[in-house]
Amino acid sequence: RFAINLNVRGIQPSATLRINELSNQLKAEGKDIIKLGLGQSPFPVPQRVVDALKDHAHEKDYLPVKGLKSLRESIAGYINRSERMRCTWEDVLIGPGSKELLFILQLAYYGDLLIPRPSWVSYAPQARIIGRSVHWLPTHAENNWQLTAEELDIICRDDASRPRILILNYPSNPTGCTYTDDQLLAIANVARKYRLILLSDEIYGEVQFDGKHKSIARYYPEGTIISTGLSKWAGAGGWRLGTFIFPKELHALQDAMAIIASETYTSTSAPTQYAAIAAFDGGDDIEEYLKQSRRVLKVVGEYMHSRLSAMGAVVQKPEGAFYVFPDFSNFRDELARKDIKTSQAFCQSLLENTGVAILPASDFGFAPDHLGARLAFVDFDGADALQLAGEDQTGQ
Ligand code: PLP
User: What is its EC number (predicted)?
Assistant: First the structure.
């Protein structure tokens, strides 16, 4: 009686959400589960942002499709402060999570999608849902899984004028690695040469452990869209607020996305948009919250790295976000004896036998037999950890 769209057939529900539901189910059955699957911030939303949400709970009207003007101004100010750019409120688009904005970007734009392997679980399925072709760009563990300008050039050289979007995500989900200024500059130069649209996914920018996160938009301002939101640095994933910041040259693309938004979700919830102003305006309390978040994540990330290395896995030290991406190929023979030959089977067996939930490398673009996995080191009490980090610093 009905036919499912062919593009959707064969796509599993989002890998991270699937593992989260399975972990919750096992927990509800009384099993002791360590949830290292879903990449959700362990920290509470900063108090002033929660207060702003409460103060605006009565705001009930539909808001403008591109977002509340005062929030767009606040985000422009945030980007100008942190990236020394000169954007204005008209450059900012608000949506219900950056995931939704990424999806409507792909709907609005005609061209191929380029993503480094490994990349976040949702970019490729989103492209497949709308029938767009995906080109995975090779990266290598020895090189911290970073895309190089040379590899990008090789792919783009073939049919140089083809319209393409490159998504670059740093600090990276799933590797926790980020790029140096020189690497960003080199990639920016290739992007300009081939007139790529560069979607710079900086959702973890504020949780880079050391040094200041810098956007590639500094080096390719005319072609870069910055993507960020409240989910990862303000702990508010479930509030669903993401934002894209466009250069003037790409305002037509922003307008096209707004048409799709107007015919689909209309706008992000009003109280959330008012509350987000408090987060993006910043202040001493937000700075302190971010400082302690980074300290905690760095300590946990280093612990994960050292334990996994000691165990014999090959793993890069995370520089930001809350992920590590170990390779367990050293255990290939041992696992094969237990008939475990794919990352999916490895993760399944780990969950069933030890109660540890992690995500297989196959969800991040690898062939099934690449014995890697992503661990999200977020299964701890974030409120306690922030308090301890603060006390530790003040010597209490
Ligand atoms: N980009 C990356 C790399 C992510 O890891 C996530 C969430 O896991 C998102 C985008 C989407 O975040 P949100 O839709 O909550 O803004």
Answer: 2.6.1.-
Query: In this structure, are 261 and 327 located in the same domain?
Result: no
Residue 18 burial (C-beta neighbours within 10 Å; 0-12, 13-18, 19+) = middle
How big, in percent rounded to 5, are the helix, strand and coil portions of the chain?
A: 50, 15, 40
In short, whether 344's Cβ falls inside 6 Å of ligand 1 is no
The Cα 89–Cα 67 span in angstroms is 10
Whether residues 269 and 324 share a domain: the answer is no
Residue 147, pLDDT above cutoff 80? yes
What is the structure's pLDDT at 9? Answer: 82
The answer to whether the CB of 242 is under 6 A from ligand 1 is: yes
* Residue 396 reports pLDDT greater than 70: no
Q: Is there an atom of ligand 1 within 6 Å of 237 CB? A: yes
pLDDT at 19 exceeding the cut of 80: no
pLDDT over 90 percentage in the chain: 85
Which residue owns the Cα nearest ligand 1 atom 8? 39
Q: Is residue 78 part of a domain?
A: yes
Give, in degrees to the nearest 5, the angle at Cα 219 between 218 and 224. 75
Question: Do residues 264 and 132 share a domain?
Answer: yes
Phi/psi for 66 (5° steps) reads -80, -10
If pLDDT is split at 50, 70 and 90, which confidence band does 395 have? low
- Show which of 234, 255, 281 is a domain's final residue: 281
Q: Are residues 31 and 164 in the same domain?
A: no
Q: Is the CB of 98 under 6 A from ligand 1?
A: yes
CA 258/CA 248 separation, integer angstroms: 15
pTM more than 0.80: yes
CATH number at residue 344: 3.90.1150.10
Number of domains in the chain: 2
Residues 269 and 373 placed together within one structural domain of the fold:
no
Same structural domain, 227 and 374 = no
Query: What ipTM is given for this predicted complex?
Result: 0.99
201-208: average pLDDT: 98
The CA 272 to ligand 1 mean position distance, Å, reads 17
Query: Is 330 inside a domain boundary?
Result: yes
For residue range 220-246, list pLDDT tens digits in order: 999 999 999 999 999 999 999 999 999
Is 199 near ligand 1, meaning CB less than 6 Å away? no
**Ligand 1 center to residue 201 CA distance, Å?**
8
Residue 10 lies in a domain: no
